[in-house]
Amino acid sequence: MEQFIYYLKVSFVSIKRAPLPYALTIFILSVGLGIFFANATFYYQLNSDPLPHKSSKLFFPMMLLAPYECTDCKPPAVLSYSNIEKLSQSDIPSAKTAMYSADGYLRKNAEQTPMPVNIRITQRDFFSMFDVPLLHGSVWPDNSARLEIILSKATAEKLFGRTDAVGEKLLLDDRHLTVTAVLDDWQMLPRLYDANNRNHLSPADDIYLPLETGYDMNYLSNTQSQTFDDTDYRKLSTQGRTGALNQLQYWVQLDTPTAQQAYKQFMANLAQDEKVAGRHPSEPNNQLVAMRNIVNYFGGESSDIKAFALVTLLFLLVCLFNASHLSLNRYLGNQYEFSLRRALGASRGQLQLQMLADVLLMAVFTIAGALLTGYAGIKLMNHLLPRNSLFSSWDLPLLLSLLAVAFICSYLVTLYPSLRASFGTLNQQLKE
Amino acid sequence: MITLTNLSKIFRTELIETHALRDINLQVNEGEFAALTGPSGSGKSTLLNILGTLENFDAGDYLLDGISVKGLSDAALSKLRNEKIGFIFQSFNLIKDFSIYDNIELPLRYRGLKASERKQRIEHALELVGLHARRDYLPGQLSGGQQQRVAIARAIAGQPRILLADEPTGNLDSLMARQVMELLEQINQQGCTILMVTHDPDQARRAGRHIQIIDGQLSDAVLYDPLAAQSA
Amino acid sequence: MSLYLLCKVLFSRKVVTALLLLQLAMTLALLLNSLLLAQQTQQQLNQPTGLDLDNTLLVQLKPTTAALRVYPALEELLNRQLDAVQAVPGVIAAAYSNQSVLLHGGNNGNIYVLEQQERTNVSTVPMYFVSKGFFNVLDSKVIQGELPQHSVSLDAPGSPDVVLTSSLADKLFAGTPAVGQQINRGRVAAVINDFYGQRSGDHIMYNSVQVAPPYGVDWGYSILLRTDPAQTESVRRQLASVLRNVESNIEIYHIRSLAEQHQHLYRNEYGLAMLLGVLSALMLLVTMVSSYSSTHFHALKRQQEIGIKRALGASKSLILLELLSENWLCTALGSMLGVALALWLNQALAQVISIPALNWYLPVITIAVLLLCVTVATWYPAATATRVSPATATKAL
Ligand SMILES: Nc1ncnc2c1ncn2[C@@H]1O[C@H](COP(=O)(O)OP(=O)(O)O)[C@@H](O)[C@H]1O
Ligand SMILES: [Mg+2]
Asked: What is the predicted ipTM?
């Protein structure tokens, strides 16, 4: 240990002898790594699996059950109420939930100014399916219409100043509702259950309302509603339940490959029956999209981050090249000293220990610089591409792998030059 | 052709001032072969560098062919060095990455000669130093004597009027040294003025003229009239 | 200095030269593609919109109580708000609309000439339900027909007359007069000049407008105002309070000029171009550092060589030129590689984002910029190197 401290001291002295090239090396490496880190953060967060233990069991059924003739077309991105009714008839899924989101105004009483809220209008299984943590109360016992809402923790705190709001009465767009549950902190990132229109980048909703109540209260989707016939979308509670007004997304949990196969068969049969009944003229086109592929299915992949990933990787390479070039020159400058030491009897092993000290010192400076640059880079990217701002946080595994990358880079940058300096033929160097 | 009047050179560093040359008065005529001797640190190299315009001086004047070098620009001095002066150094000073041929070609390129002319002159110079077969070697592949002969070839390829040699045989054994010495005499006979620093009394004697420096001053004892010496 | 000897020097330092070349190539490739992207964004932002971007203001808002979102209360609210904003000094014209112009997507649907759906169907055309002042706000020029003068309820029998933008009329009727024809949204009453509707539609200039109160305002609605250029700012400052005075139970999402709305629409492209620009600048900086350091170290190592050359008659300016041309040669070689790399990167980027193909003049410009940067970075260490004393450098050790 004492010996190693000595080596660190030697490294330090050699830095002090030529501080500019060393500072430039660190600068270049920090900038390269920092930019890489910043983008890697978004890339990692955007592509992370929010439910690693069950994402392979969750599926998004899509069917072309619409009253229009169309060849070779994708099913519409959203389903109608009657589509969902039919799809829900199967007992193969261990859980199933339909959903959409809408905007509303919430307040405690008519005197208060209304607070804009994002409402997720969904069914009972939503909470178990996506592992939503409950803080107080309980979820609706079934999928029937009920004037009961579930609040996010932040909404409860904003309205009541406390989390336990179960039993409280509220006005949602001037209709009376009772709070039945309050969620714990919850933010699924990316929010894969709502990937249409790149909504997977959005924050979690503020309140949750039963699907039937949402239709009764005439809430239109704030993401996408389409009519394929003359359904009046102001009459959601009546015509909306029977006509081709599509605005719903649907998720099923299929635990085994057998269940998945069986469900596909169910969908095929359903499409066939409907066609025979004359309710849709097009050829059936059924899709059972796995949760992992849902963003891709909706074409919502963050191409800017992807494009940038390519570019930052190139940039990192350039910086690595450059830093190793700089440090090669630095070492070649010190080569005479290296050789002299070897002539004085230092073994290669000892010299390598010296290099390790160099690497360590360089890694410390580089990591500090890279984290700083990375932080600035993330701030800049949040400013310029605000849609992705939820995906800019560092977690432990990410941070550790970033540190490892930084260390490896410092090592690479030091390795080649120091090998050249220490393994060159001894007397040739002394002669020069 | 060389006239030094009251020439002085002082090296100033942070700590000390070194009077490398004091009040030098010297006249060298066309075609002379002069040996410059003196103890180590007496200012021989400094004098040679000043004569070669590699170094400037603090006082006095230096006339080359009747023209003072004092007021000349860097470009003019470079041209003058390139056309009139050839250098031979103790440590050869060949460019390591260049072949023998490229080394000799360098000053000719600086002069802007045509390729055919360059080629002819290089061949001739290589012929003279007897290294024609080694033209594509790198300097590192040659012995010390051969390297010095290359350096001589480089110095004379431009057909300079003056050859300045600073201990040209200092790094060579006696056989090699003799070869180099003979080469220089041969060059002198063709009309080139040579000033050579040496420690070897034999070489000094073989030169037509002997100049001694002690402590930055030309020693009176040896300051003699070359014509008188010749007649003696 | 001959090219031959320059190359010889370059290739005697294989690793260093290879690194430098690669890096120059990558810098050029990145620089080129960033410029391309920036250029494309600039073009998108400069494309004609048919709108007076600077002097048209947009308020996006929504009633916060359910009672205000149903007729007749809604229509009464809309009219009260219009009257109030029209009274603000500096407002030339005001109108409400179910949605703003210059959007990504919004309220839209397919449109076709009756009885000719197969042939004429256009799948995504924005539908605007507006008050009659809308055309005045946009300063629309009537090309054919007459603008509807009265608001007609969408629930009344028959549908309100339709006003089409000229490129949509051309698409549907291919040069034959459009006025009087029946399309699925109603009878065509007039054709006006183009304006930018929705980016995700079939064509940004395809729009259909009907003078009618909107079905509903679940997604909010827009109030559009054309202002006197001298008073745009003052109008803008008063708008929020004027609207709240009319009715306090509203949420105002934003008040923007159409110029801001336009920029907002291309925010992502702008952001990406900016980011790549920042990255390119950093890359140039890194290249400059590397040119600087490589010259610095190279010259340091070759002090003796430079001294010898000086002794052999090379002037300071010649040595400077030699060192600079080494870097120029390197940059030129790297640039050639870089253009190849840029082509590859361009294709790789085209897989994930929309980016125009490489043209001939951008490489020329970027190479010039690169040369300039390399020269600036090389100058100082090279000039320092020429100052070595030939006497010292040639001295025997
Ligand atoms: N560049 C220099 N800076 C300072 N002092 C120098 C320098 N070059 C030579 N000197 C000093 O000038 C004196 C003459 O040196 P030099 O001409 O090299 O002697 P020599 O006769 O051995 O060739 C010595 O004292 C030397 O230390
Ligand atoms: Mg000497």
From this structure: 0.89
Contacts of C282 in chain A (CB under 8 A): 31, 35, 315
Q: How many CB pairs under 8 A join B and C?
A: 79
CA distances from residue B75 to A306, B107, B110, C167, C314 in whole angstroms, order as listed: 56, 14, 12, 71, 8
Residue nearest to atom 14 of ligand 1 (CA): B43
Q: Ligand 1: which of B7, B8, B10, B11 to mutate, judged by most atoms within 8 Å of the beta carbon? A: B11
Secondary structure element (H or E) that encloses residue A137, with its range: strand A134-137
Could you tell me if A36 and A60 lie in one domain?
Answer: no
First to last CA, chain C: 29
Q: Is B168 in the pocket of ligand 1 (CB under 6 A)?
A: no
A142-190: pLDDT as tens digits: 999 999 999 999 999 999 999 999 999 999 998 999 999 999 999 998 9
Same domain for A251 and A379, yes or no, is no
Please tell me the total count of domains within chain A: 2
Query: From the centroid of its chain, how far is CA A206?
Result: 19
Beta-strand runs (E) in A138-191: 148-151, 169-172, 175-183
The CA angle C376-C378-C384, to the nearest 5 degrees, is 115
Q: Are residues A210 and A235 in the same domain?
A: yes
CA gap A349, A86 in Å, rounded:
74
Q: Is B216 in the pocket of ligand 1 (CB under 6 A)?
A: no
Closest protein CA for atom 20 of ligand 1? B41
- C-beta atoms surrounding A67 within 10 Å: 14
> What is the pLDDT averaged over residues C260-279?
89
User: Which among A264, A297, A330 is the end of a domain?
Assistant: A297
pTM of this structure: 0.80
Domains of chain B: 2-231 (3.40.50.300)
- Of A114, A132, A157, the closest CA to residue A208 belongs to A132
Is residue A422 pLDDT above 70, yes or no? no
**Are both A360 and A221 inside the same structural domain?**
no
Angle between helices B144-157 and B174-189 (to 10 degrees): 10
Question: Which among C1, C5, C390 has CB closest to B102?
Answer: C5
Report whether C128 contacts C99 (CB < 8 A).
yes
CA distance A3 to B61: 61
Residues A278-317: tens digit of each pLDDT: 888 888 889 999 999 999 898 888 777 787 888 888 889 8
Closest CA relative to residue A99, chosen from A73, A128, A78, A68: A78
- A129, A196: one domain: yes
Question: Do A356 and A386 fall into the same domain?
Answer: yes
Domain hosting A237: range is: 55-297
Ligand 1 contacts CB of residue B11 (under 6 A): yes
How much distance in Å is there from the Cα of B99 to the middle of ligand 2? 27
Q: E strand or H helix at A120, and its extent?
A: strand A115-122
Q: Kindly state whether residues A69 and A210 are assigned to the same domain.
A: yes
Cβ of B146 below 6 Å from ligand 1: no
CA–centroid distance, A278 to ligand 1, in Å, is: 109
Going by C-alpha positions, the residue among C206, C211, C205, C174 that lies closest to residue C189 is C211
Chain A neighbours (≥3 Cβ pairs under 8 A) are C
- Asked if residue A286 and residue A255 are part of one domain, the reply reads yes
**Atom from ligand 1 closest to the CA of residue B44:** 21
Nearest CA in chain C to B76: C315
Point out the ligand nearest to the CA of residue B37: 1
